[in-house]
């Protein structure tokens, strides 16, 4: 497979979305970046501090704005023709350079804060993150997108406890709630994710618990290079061929989203 | 149960998020509102046209901005004390009035556009959409939140086809992808949803197909009052009691999110 944007070995991008610097998330961001900086070149995107505008709109097309056609495809044209907005191009350069993406956010309404969702909407354009065809004419997506060669660690804080967000928990299990990110965004673009790094009961941690969580995070980050990343199934392996649904002989009878995890394959 | 904000019978709010007025979504919005206006009083929130700011930030707290504490709880205090931003209060008034919510958006990266996610982050504050305790001391959520008494119809367009977004489809089935909205946002706040109204292959429809889709939508809207809404399980029914996970005797062995649907109960 072709690597569209070869990452720079040892470079990480820490993508962070929380409005309050004095929050638990603020501490996680600062101490996490410090820890990682001991072993890597760390770029950061502190979306609130940058005042990042998350609204994908007509002006994202640059001089192509107003052109009739499919908006996602036009964004791909704007990418190719160097028409994307300066803030988007700056983010794309950081993503292109990083081989490790850290994506840190508080769980708001069972998903990402809007400022982070809009970073995805605006930055991961056609042409940059997806859109090519492979040698067989299949679109390069789900395991082989424009960002192939990268891995991602998602760090998420949640006010709820681990039971509410666990298997059969009332709020839905977090792996399924974040499937649109791990699979629909990252894997679609070629990025494999590590197991989620989850901090539950995040609103009620006392000082000792915060210190424990920060130690746990530092240990995780220090060893991340040795961790296996989870793989979903590859579109090109033929497991969906013909119907775009998973072949009946694979994970038979099941309808949960874990059927899309590759069996026993880790990167 | 207490109805915190009694809706006005016959009033609907059409919440809409697409940047291009000349898009398929633009036509659906205009013709849908026209159709509904024949039978109801229709309020609208055209988020792009309004220039809605989707970034929840410190200034959302009004005079409480800078106060130490949990951000979600402070938003609840800001609501109670009339400190929320004017644009947020205007949206809350519309939601309070509506007994039917129409939520229309294109599927971007397997979720809502950021401008719509941020409407949820900013508008559905504690105090307004959730946060009370019932007479037994349980939080009023999942079936009994601040917006109880309302129903919602989600209209979503997708570039992909129905197989990719169906059961075992490569992109994940759409009901599961949108569970954070139907269950985590709406049901959490007390709102029951109708079956999703999905328009697939939305980028490739010719004029005839567009006309067919618009007819199908008008028929759906005209009969919506007679449709049963889907119910998830109620927190207060004891089906999660003790563990915050679904009792082992209900939907035994399953881990898909449909275990949270109430069996055979429709509103």
Automatic annotation (TrEMBL), chains A, B:
Keyword rRNA-binding among record annotations: no
Gene Ontology cellular-component terms listed: cytosol
Domain Flavodoxin-like fold: 12-220
Domain of life: Bacteria
Keyword Transmembrane helix set for record: no
Matches recorded under InterPro entries: Flavodoxin_fold, Flavoprotein-like_sf, NAD(P)H_dehydrogenase_qn
One Gene Ontology molecular-function label: NAD(P)H dehydrogenase (quinone) activity
Entries under Pfam families matching the protein: Flavodoxin_2 (PF02525)
Keywords, sorted A to Z: Oxidoreductase
Similarity-based family: Belongs to the NAD(P)H dehydrogenase (quinone) family.
Protein name, per record: NAD(P)H-dependent oxidoreductase
UniProt organism field: Pseudoclavibacter endophyticus
Species classification: Bacteria, Bacillati, Actinomycetota, Actinomycetes, Micrococcales
């Amino acid at each position: 497979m072709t690597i569209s944007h070869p990452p720079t070995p040892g470079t990480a991008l820490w993508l962070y979305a929380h409005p309050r610097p004095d929050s638990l998330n603020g501490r996680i961001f600062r101490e996490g970046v410090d820890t990682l900086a001991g072993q890597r070149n760390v770029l950061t995107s502190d979306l609130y501090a940058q005042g990042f505008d998350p609204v994908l709109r007509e002006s994202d097309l640059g001089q192509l704005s107003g052109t009739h056609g499919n908006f996602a495809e036009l964004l791909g044209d704007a990418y190719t023709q160097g028409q994307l907005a300066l803030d988007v191009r700056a983010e794309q350069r950081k993503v292109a350079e990083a081989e490790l993406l850290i994506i840190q956010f508080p769980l708001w309404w069972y998903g990402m804060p809007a400022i982070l969702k809009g970073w995805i909407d605006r930055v991961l354009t056609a042409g940059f993150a997806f859109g090519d065809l492979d040698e067989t004419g299949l679109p390069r997506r789900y395991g082989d997108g424009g960002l192939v060669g990268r891995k991602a660690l998602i760090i998420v804080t949640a006010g709820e406890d681990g039971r509410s967000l666990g298997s059969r928990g009332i709020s839905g299990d977090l792996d399924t709630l974040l499937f649109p990110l791990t699979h629909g965004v990252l894997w679609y673009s070629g990025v494999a994710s590590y197991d989620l790094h989850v901090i539950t009961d995040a609103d009620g941690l006392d000082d000792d618990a915060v210190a424990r969580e920060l130690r746990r995070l530092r240990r995780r980050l220090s060893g991340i290079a040795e961790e296996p990343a989870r793989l979903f199934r590859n579109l090109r392996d033929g497991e969906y061929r013909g119907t775009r649904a998973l072949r009946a002989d694979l994970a038979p009878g099941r309808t949960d989203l874990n059927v899309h995890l590759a069996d026993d394959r880790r990167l």
